[in-house]
Amino acid sequence: MLVDLVEVTTTDGLTLGGAYLAATVTNRPSPIECLCFLHGDGGHFYRPLYLELGARLAASGIAFLAANRRGHDLVSRGARGGSLQGYAHESVDAARLDYAAWLAFLQERGHHAMAVSGHSGGAVRAVYAQAKEHFAGVHAVVSVSPGEYEHQGLVDTYGEAFAQLYRQAQTSLAEGQPDAYLRTDIPFRAMWTAQALVDTFHVDNRYSLTRHAAETGCPTLCVFGAEECAGPQVEPTAGVAMRRLRAANYAHVTVDVIEGANHAYAGREVALFESLLGWLVTL
Fold first, then answer.
1. Which domain-ending residue is among 204, 224, 240?
2. End position of a domain, from candidates 167, 183, 204
C-alpha cells in the first residue's frame, strides 16, 4: 500500500496530518472522485481500517484521504502558543474548518467531485459539516456508524448516570472551569472537558444526526454494523441513529446495515468496502 503523507493548516492555525491514496486505475466507476474521511473520536488517520478501506477504493478508481481532525487522540498540543486540542477539547462545530482545509487540499490535487465522510464521531461531523456549509465540490456524504447526539435520548438510555454527568459538567462551567476533565464510560468511554461535553450533548440538540441529515443537500449514505445496533456489542447512540434515520425515511438518505459487523467492523472490513462502493456506483 503506497500512501502520500500530507498536511494542511486550518484557517485558525491548526496543522493536521493525513494519508492520501490516489486512484490506481483510471476507469472510475462513480462520479465521486475522492472521499475525504475523518476518523472516530479520540482516534487518528492511520488506523488500519481506514487505510485498508482507502486502498480498496483506490484500487477501484476512487481516491481516498484518511485525515486527522483537530480531535485526534484524546489530548494534543494544538497550534504553537494556542490552547490544547484533541478529542477532550473538541467541538463538533469545528469540523467545518477541518473539512474546509482538507477539501481545499483535494481541490489542489485536481478533485472536483468529492464526498465528505468519516467513522463514528467523524461520521457525525461529515453530516453536520455538509448540512451547515454545503461545500462546493462535495456531491455526497458517506457516514459510517454515526451516533445520534440527542440530549433527552441519552437521558432515556442512561438515566440518572448521564443526567448526573451532564450536571457535573454544567457545574464546572458555572464555576469558571470549562477545561475541567471528566472521564466517563457513557455514552462511550472517553475523556472530555466540561465545555466539550455540554456542547456535544447540549439540551438544544445542536448536533442531532437525524436533524442535520435532512439538510445535507446531496445523496447521503449512513452505514451501520448490526452488532452495534443491538446485542452484546451494542453502541446505543449508533442504534438510535439507525432507527431514527429509517423512521425519517429521507428521500436522499440511504441506510445500510451490515450483518455481523460491530462498531469497528472487525472481520467485516470487506463488507464495509462493498457497501460503500456499491452505493457510490449508483450516483
1. 204
2. 204
